[in-house]
C-alpha cells in the first residue's frame, strides 16, 4: 500500500543529484490519500510512523495511540527548524564561492615561481662555472710561471757550474760532474713536486666542477618534485571545492523549491531529509584549507658558492727583548722555555766545556744565570730545555745528560742516560727534550730513531722507537697526547704516538725556493702548532715561522723572521700569550702576538715575501 504514496516521499538522492523534477514536485503538492484507506483523504500526519498521512478512521484503528499532528502545525514547526540551517549555509556561501578564485590565482603564482626558480638556478650555475674556469686559467698561468722560474734557476746554476768547470784543473772534472748531477736531481725533484702540487689543485677544481653540476642536478630534481606535489595538492583542493559547491547548489535549489511550494505536506515530507543532508555539508564548508603561499614558494637553497682560499702571510713587526747580561763572544741559545710569572729560561753554549742556564724576566733582565761544566764533552756542548712547571724546567745536554733545573734556587739535578741504558752507542747524543704533562714524563730526543723517557724524578721509564722514515729528532713537542717530531735529515715533520707509531706528516707546500728544514716546534693553550723552518739559499740564511691548525694540520699563517731564529716557545705575560723567538749566535729575543685562529687552506704558492721582523 505504501507504493501508492511513493511520489509523496522526497529522497535525499534526488536532492543531491539535482533529480528533483517538476513532475515529482507536483506530485508532492497533491493532497495525499490515506495509506490504509486509499479512498480517504489524509487529515492528519502520524509522526510515530515518519509523518505518514492518515485519515480519521485510522486514528481509531491502526494509528490509535500514535503521535498525530495537524499537518499545518507540523509543517510550521519543520520550517522553523530549517530556517537556522539555511542561515548558517548562507553565512559560509561567500567563502565557498571565493575559493575557486584563490585556487586559480595560486596555480598561476605556482607556474610563475617554477619559471623564476628555473632561471635563477641556471644563472647561478653559469656564474659559478665561469668562476671555476677563470680559476683554472689562473692556476695554469701559475704553473707556467713556476716551471719557467725553476728552469731559469736550473740554467743559471748549470751555467755557473760549467764556468767553474772550465776554470778548474783536470783533477776536478769528476767533482763538477757530480755537482751537475746533484743539481739536476735537485731541480728535477723541485719541478716534479711543483707539477704534483699543480695537479692536485687542478684535481680539486675539477672535483668542484663535478660537485657544482651534481648540485644543479639535485636542485632541479627537487624543484620538479616539489612543483608536481604542489600541483597535485592544488588539483585535489580544486576538485574537493567543486564537489562542495555542487552539493551546496543542489541543496539550495532543493530547499528553495520545497519552501517555495508553500505546501505543508511537502514541508513535512522533505524538510527532515533536507536537514539531514545539511549537517555534513556544513561540516565540509567549515573545513579550513591550507595556506596557499606554501604551495608556490620553493624552499630550495642556492647553488653552492665556489671559494678559493690561500695561506695568510703576516707582515706585522714585533718588538725585541734585549737580553741584558747574556751576550758574549761564545754564548749561543739552543733552547728556550717558559717558567711562569712572565719569566723564561734560555739554555745554550757558554764557552768551551761549559753551558749556561739563564732565567730572564719579561723586561729582558737576567734574574739568575748558572754555568754548568760538561763532564762528558770538552768541546762546545749544546743544552736544550722545556717547561715542567712554574718552578722547574727539564734540560738535556750533549752527550747524554738529562736534568731538572729549579728556577728559584738554581739547583740542577741530573742523570746520564748511558748509566741506565746499557746499549747507548758512543756516537749517540741528545738533541732535544719535551715534557708530557698527562703522564708526567720527560722525553729526550736524540740524533737517531730512539727517544728515552724518564719520570719527573729522573727515573728511567722506557724507550720509544720512531718509524723508519724519521732519522734525526731535531726538536719535539707534545700535542694532544702525541709527539710532533722535526726530522732535520728527512726535512719533514711527523706526528707519532707515544708508542712510536706514525700518525701523519705535516705539509710544507707553502715554502718557496730553498731546501727547508724544520728547526723548532711548540704549541699554545689552544693546541695550535707553531714551527720554524730554515734554509740557506744564495748565500743567505732564511727562516719562516708557520702556524698550523689543531685538528687537520692545515697551514694558517706564515711570516719570515730573523734568519738566525733557532727556537720558539709560548710565554704568558699579564694573562696574554706571546710567541717568543730566540736567535742563535746574535742572541736576540723577539715577541710576537698569537696569530688568528681562522683556518685558510693552502691552495696556491704566494709569490711575494714578507719582511723579516726588525730589530
Q: What attributes characterize this protein structure?
A:
615 residues, alpha+beta, Double Stranded RNA Binding Domain, Neuraminidase, 3 domains, five-stranded mixed sheet, four-stranded antiparallel sheet, 5 helices, 27% strand, elongated, disordered C terminus
Overall CATH architecture of the largest domain: 6 Propeller
Number of domains: 3
* Gyration radius from CA atoms, angstroms: 48 Å
Total beta-strand segments: 28
So what's the overall shape?
elongated
Calculate the terminal CA-CA distance, rounded to whole Å.
Answer: 125 Å
Going by helix content, strand content and strand pairing, the class is alpha+beta
By CATH reckoning, the class of the largest domain would read Mainly Beta
The strands making up the biggest β-sheet line up spatially as 4-25-24-23-22
Number of separate helices? 5
Give the uncertain stretches in residue-range form. 1-12, 307-317, 595-615
Strand content: 25-35%
Largest sheet: 5 strands, mixed
Q: Share of helix among residues?
A: 25-40%
According to CATH, the fold-level topology of the largest domain is Neuraminidase
Mean pLDDT: 81
Fourth-tier CATH superfamily name of the largest domain? TolB, C-terminal domain
Structure description:
The protein is of the alpha+beta class and 615 residues long. The chain folds into 3 domains: 2-74, Double Stranded RNA Binding Domain (2-Layer Sandwich); 97-295; 332-593, TolB, C-terminal domain (Neuraminidase), CATH 2.120.10. It is 36% helix and 27% strand. It contains 5 helices and 28 strands. Strands 4-25-24-23-22 form a 5-stranded mixed β-sheet, with no helix packed on it. The chain has a 4-stranded antiparallel β-sheet with strand order 5-28-27-26, with no helix packed on it. It has a 4-stranded antiparallel β-sheet with strand order 6-7-8-9, with no helix packed on it. A hairpin with a 5-residue loop joins strand 8 and strand 9 (366-373). The chain is elongated and about 150 Å long. The termini are far apart. This is Putative tripartite motif containing 13-like. InterPro entries: 6-blade_b-propeller_TolB-like, TRIM45/56/19-like. Keywords: Coiled coil. It comes from Stichopus japonicus (Sea cucumber).
